């Protein structure tokens, strides 16, 4: 049997607020600002509440891991690497498997090479 909600618990009230914000896709920065302002919390405690809430959502399967291959950093070319992001609502163009992200990266590279070769001829 679940415990009855404690109306004086800042954590429970913050979780309820974060639940309502999750459906509207707020950024972490906005969520943190709203938690600290509404409940007058310190930054570290607000970060703990946010991280706990997010981890509980991940454990419950509410979030999805998306993948992409990055080859630039601030405009500089670097060695390609696989980047992962955990998101609540993935976009249509997000890749849900590593293989799909790598395949797309190779496809885009091939298109670039074909364009360069066509330009050179």
Number of strands: 2
Taken from the alpha-carbon principal axes, the silhouette is elongated
Main beta sheet strand tally, sense and closure: 2 strands, antiparallel
Task: Figure out the total of helices.
Answer: 4
Q: Roughly how many Å apart are the termini?
A: 74 Å
Helix/strand structural class: alpha+beta
Task: Walk me through what this model shows.
This protein has 121 residues and is of the alpha+beta class. The protein has two domains: 10-59; 64-120, no CATH class. 54% of the residues lie in helices and 18% in strands. It contains four helices and two strands, in the order αααββα. The chain has helices at residues 10-22, 28-39, 43-59, 98-120; strands spanning 64-73, 76-87. It has a two-stranded antiparallel ribbon. A hairpin with a 2-residue loop joins β1 (64-73) and β2 (76-87). α2 (28-39) crosses α3 (43-59). It is elongated and about 75 Å long. The chain starts with 9 loop residues before the first helix and ends with a helix. The mean pLDDT is 90.
